[in-house]
Write a sequence for this structure.
């Protein structure tokens, strides 16, 4: 195995190198095996593949840090400079001051405008340099982090990776399914039967416990009409109750609601109307 793996787990740099075609042979095969057995790693790879990084938010932060009022003041002085101060001179000096000079224009006009432009360029370059480059001995500095994704957006990225084959080979006997579901739901303080969380045309497949910012998130996975992956997700929430709402993320339809201290969501690549009906049936059963 190549020595690049000896440094620890797969990093984003490794994933980017793979996407850029810089890994080959055993290195690429190793990474592909890791992705196939690690769902979180697979989700990171797809996120990087789609290029969905918050660059625009980062540049918005730079614009907010710009000294807008100060720059406007400089430009105003460039367009309409104040008159030079009047200085009383000795008589002998006054005669000398009356002699013609090659340049009599006060510091202003186009010179001030040029200076303002240079200052703006220097400031912009310095701001960007200071944000992304550090002087020796300095720690990286960031204005503030872009707003993190909520749990529904995070699940949508993960759900996008699911295909029929992901769920086909799960245990099909009733006892195994019941043990699996109750073990997963215990992480969020619920105890429900497979029948309770099964509504047509969903076929129960398995339940998993995921982690979202240190909180357990239960994902109950189904196949819709035996073909399309659909997930019913549950997470504890202190927010007020909310009726069933529809939205779309990552090209997938979502129906979500909150009640009794929990947030619920049904998500999948199925018609919005069908998903809404499923969500309302589940909500009624859990009430």
């Amino acid at each position: 195995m190549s020595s690049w793996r000896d440094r620890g787990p797969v990093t984003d740099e490794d994933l980017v190198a793979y996407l850029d075609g810089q890994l080959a042979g055993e290195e690429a095969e190793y990474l592909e095996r890791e992705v196939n057995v690690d769902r979180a790693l697979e989700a990171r790879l797809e996120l990087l593949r789609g290029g969905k990084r918050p660059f625009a938010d980062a540049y918005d932060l730079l614009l907010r840090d710009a000294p807008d009022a100060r720059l406007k003041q400089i430009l105003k002085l460039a367009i309409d400079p104040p008159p030079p101060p009047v200085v009383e001179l000795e008589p002998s000096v006054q005669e000398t001051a009356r002699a013609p000079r090659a340049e009599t224009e006060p510091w202003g006009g186009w010179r001030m405008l040029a200076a303002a432009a240079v200052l703006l360029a220097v400031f912009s370059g310095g701001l960007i340099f200071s944000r992304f480059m550090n002087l020796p001995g300095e720690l990286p500095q960031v204005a503030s982090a872009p707003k993190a994704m909520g749990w529904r957006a995070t699940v949508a990225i993960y759900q996008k990776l699911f295909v029929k084959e992901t769920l086909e080979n799960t245990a099909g006997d009733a006892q195994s399914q019941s043990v699996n579901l109750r073990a997963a739901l215990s992480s969020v303080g619920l105890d429900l039967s497979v029948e309770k969380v099964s509504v047509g045309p969903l076929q129960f497949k398995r339940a998993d416990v995921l982690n979202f910012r240190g909180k357990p998130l239960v994902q109950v996975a189904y196949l819709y009409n035996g073909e399309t992956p659909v997930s019913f997700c549950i997470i504890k929430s202190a927010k007020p109750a909310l009726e069933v709402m529809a939205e779309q993320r990552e090209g997938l339809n979502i129906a979500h609601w909150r009640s009794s201290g929990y947030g619920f969501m049904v998500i999948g690549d199925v018609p919005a109307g069908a998903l809404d009906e499923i969500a309302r049936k589940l909500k009624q059963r859990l009430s």
